[in-house]
Design goal:
By secondary structure, the chain is mainly α. The chain has helices spanning 4-30, 32-35, 38-43, 46-51, 55-80, 85-88, 98-112, 114-122, 125-128, 140-175, 179-182, 185-206, 211-242, 250-254, 259-262, 280-283, 300-303, 308-314, 321-328, 338-347, 384-402, 407-430, 447-464, 479-482, 503-522, 524-530, 536-545, 550-566, 571-576, 591-608, 614-637, 644-664, 674-681, 690-696, 702-716, 720-733. The radius of gyration is 37 Å and the shape is elongated.
Amino acid sequence: MGDIGGMAEKMQSFFLQEVLSRTHIVLKEMLEEEVGNNTQRNRFTYSDLCVQVPESKLRPCLLKTLESIFSLMRSYYAIMSFCPEAKNNTSQSASGTSADTGRSHSSAVVNQDDVAATKSDRMPSSVSNPDASTSGTDAPFYQLRKDATKLVAYTFERGRRNLWQLATSRLSVLLACSAVSSTSIYQFLKNYEDLTIFILAGEAFCGFEASEFRQKLKTVCLNYIVTFHRQNIYALKMVLEKESWTIMSAEASQIISLAGLTGDGAALISPTSGSSTLPKDYFRGNSIATNTGRQNNGFASWLNIGNPFSFKLENGSADSPKGNVLFNSSVGNGNNSPFDEENEDLLADFIDEDSQLPSRTLKTKIVKGNTSHWKDGDISSQTGSSLSLLRMMDKYARLMQKLEMVNVELFKGMFQLFGIFYHHIYETFGYQDRSQSGKPLPDSQSFRLKAALSKITQDSDQWIKPQNSLYPSSSSLSIGSTIAQMDVMPTAPPSSMFTSYGLKERCAAAETVSLVARVLNRSRAHLHSVLSQNNTSVVEEFFGTLVDTVPDLAEHIHRTSARMLLHINGYPDKIANAKWEVKELGTDHNGYVDLLLGEFKHYKTRLDHGGISKELQHLLLDYGIESIAEVLVEGLSRVKRCTDEGRALMSLDLQVLINGLQHIVSSNVKPRLQIVETFVKAYYLPETEYVHWARSHPEYSKSQVVGLVNLVATMKGWKRKTRLETIEKIEAAA
């Protein structure tokens, strides 16, 4: 044969050329309608053809490309693992090693593959039939053939990485087309499954981890997730803008299955007929690349199953949603297959405008097998937007299990969806309308609520305040930064948020956000298990910053509702402008007390006829009394001049108010007005005690304490230096 080394190099070059040729031919044949006549198709390069792949042809093109490359890998491996002893040793035991079995099967593959068949046809008859010229294994010809086989196998083994890298580079060009990001979530998951199988087979073929192509696949997943996440944000904002904040029926709530969030049976990957015979070890992630050293037989098990992509091409119905459901219909105990429910959930990509629920592919069915995540009271608090949000987050949780390489980005997407929902409820029901008062009341938001809103604004400013959006570098692929480059939808101005909804809707909003938080808290352990140990801080940040602060948000909404319904924002100025500089204390109280009692009576009447539960009525009554206490303190802190008799009049007003409120409500109101009595008594403190008093009473704002000090200093004739030093110390300690 002459130059055996040269022959081996030419054979390897032939396989490399076949990768280029076959992948190009696949696209030319598949895109016959899109490209036009044969002359035009011949002028297009492979990259040009990839750009023109439509969404409808993406999966067939990908499967055909994978099938062709896998066929070449089988032929290449068959030549690399060919052993002449396996053919001549007819007395070989049937209990041979798995390596011999793989090689024997590989030699059969060579005869079936057209590449190997061409090679066999071109060999001389004396070479193809060594028995014609010699009868012993020690003959020179046999030894020459044995040495030539070893050299070819060594050359092929050394160059298999080149074949793999060329094949993956061609696939990378195909995966860069726009159709990959625009395909449906179901089709994308099928493509991801096929590419994962191909990577595992390739790692077994090469004997090393395909880190570059895995990174390419991760980039493809990230790009798809960005598009998918943007669609879900648009859908959520659409639902929120059309939300009526009315409680949904129990039947509507029961169609939602949250198996992905709660971990009650969400499948990691939906099996198909074509992948059911794949080596089980590879689905556990045991790649051949994890073993060091030379692995000659890692690909042998893949030869036994045939070409997995050929089956999928021949049985195209198995890749359709109906085909997959039919295949999985025999799985389970007679109820709906978990894969059926899961695939139907993933297909629900749109929101129905009438019901505000994700659309279903088939008629609605009541989910009976996965209702363990619902607890008493949960269903009664559902609204259309909360159902939509939970459905979206459940879909994200399912995808976190399927797309493990990008599950952190998916979790961050869940984080942002809940943040947008959280912020919308705050803007709609927690915004304080201060237009009725010349001077605003002190901010009653808790520190945790402020921190949560700050975090949401920082991460989702592009969606909640589009006019302030900043566009970061396009090089980043994370969800949090990439969505800044997308078009955003306008939000409603805060001025219209207090005329659209009544008490019942406001209470429903507070209840529904609390419901979502309860469901998320039950999914906390499951989400920890899905993410790796290195990413647990992301989960804790989400729960610590947002989910755990939902009670603060609900309380703020109820307090805001109480303040709105009481209509007492203007009373601090009325209290401050009352006559407090009196010389004698009479038996009559100030008129604002009667006005406050009248407002509270109307407030209780509104609660009685508001269509809310008794529990919420009692809660809002308590918040109403506390709102009156806040108004009293704020008004008294704005008083400019007051005598000792005026301070006694303040105590009289407070006692009359307590007695009047006690006739309206059954609970003891005096403890809730203790904050006012303490503030009034501080008028009699020595001038050296005010700094310590301010530090020990953080419930009063800095402006309220400063107002008290200014009043006392004016009426008791403090030195200017003493007053300024006291105020300076109070402000420094605040």
